[in-house]
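A brief tutorial aside. Many learners find it easier to grasp structure tokens once they have seen a single protein encoded end to end. The record that follows does exactly this for Flavoprotein. Read the sequence first, then the structure, and try to relate runs of similar tokens to stretches of the chain.
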Amino acid sequence: MSSPQNIDVLIIGAGAAGLMCAANAAARGRNVVVVDHANKVGKKILMSGGGRCNFTNMEVLPKHYLSANPHFFKSALARFTQWDFIALVLKHGVAYHEKKLGQLFCDNKAQDILDLLLDECAEAGASIFTHCDIKTIEALSAEHAPARYKVATSLGDYLCESLVIATGGLSIPTMGATGFGYQVAEQFGLALKPRTAGLVPFTLSPTQLEQFKDCVGNAAEVTVTCGTQSFTENLLFTHRGLSGPAILQISSYWQPGQNLEINLLPQLDLVDYLTRQQQERPKVLLTTLMSELLTKSIAQSFCSFVTEIRPVNQYTPKEIQAIADLFHKWEIMPAGTEGYRTAEVTLGGVDVDGLSSKTMEAKNQPGLFFIGEVVDVTGHLGGFNFQWAWASGFAAAQFV
Ligand code: FDA
């Protein structure tokens, strides 16, 4: 049995947060090793943003994040901002563009972002190993100082002063996601917040699917509301339920059993519009008018809930109000979500009250750090989750 390797920093998880932390810690002169159980590093980076990686956003604000403590993430995000990451992107000559709503994507492919991180790691001297299974983690007594942890792996044992857990969340298990980080947190007495799938499509019941079967493949710009949270973006009807950016965003705020209220025409006052049409185009059928505002399938599906389809001038003001409510206040209770199989993120995770917001170090366990998605900090859709990975990785890197 070969003797353990003495290093300064062992990072478990070579994803967005782990690689960012590795590059910056190694740049400080620390002897850094990153290990990952997968056959390739950065798999989620490669599949992100439809293969083009939405790596950050032009506007990063606290309102774009969910956490049991809505102040925890502010410090790290302020110390490594979107502008810092954009500077890195420019340094590496990665071509990028703003798609919409401040979302920055690679012009070419997500591999450019992974290459950027790997180049930074190589330049700073961080070592990265794949195919590495973690067997045990042991906290060492003071007599082993400066080493504080012994980590037994399939590639050999490491003694390290700082141990960084960057193993991400539970989404897309086929890409190597595991609950490993949560187990480590539990092993060292850190609390966990309940975990659920976030940024995930909704499923509908068989009856609801039947009602909207003609809408499959159709999209509309809607405002979807759940409780006090609203998003105005596209909604897409699918074979299994509802998807599209508006739905993914609201899914992070939804609890089973809650209704969604969906305004299918958020830019229009339908009572006002139909009342004017009664004067201007009195003989036009309601379905024809609605098909001018929404796709024909969506318009017809929703008009099927109107007792009788008539020329628009034949509806009373009360009926016009009821028709408007149908389109402006569509209430639907999803059957569930697609779960971790397709979710972009995991909500919940390592309770931030147990971590330092300055260093990401466990308050009760010196030298143990948690960064990235494993922590109970989740961003909205739009590059905010990577920005958290970069920022938390950078924050920890200054103190490991
Ligand atoms: P990440 O998941 O990146 O890395 C964790 C690493 O740990 C992996 O390499 C894994 O193999 C390794 N690991 C896990 N368990 C281990 C174990 N037991 N032992 C050793 N290694 C282990 N966000 C965004 O901002 N913009 C976007 O465009 C997208 N797009 C997107 C698309 C899809 C399909 C998904 C699933 C997700 C996104 N995201 C996103 C979210 C984003 O990918 C996510 O928030 C970050 O990758 C999180 O970074 P981490 O480094 O924390 O985990």
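Self-check: Residues 52 and 110 are 4 Å apart (CA to CA). If you spotted this yourself, you are ready for the next section.
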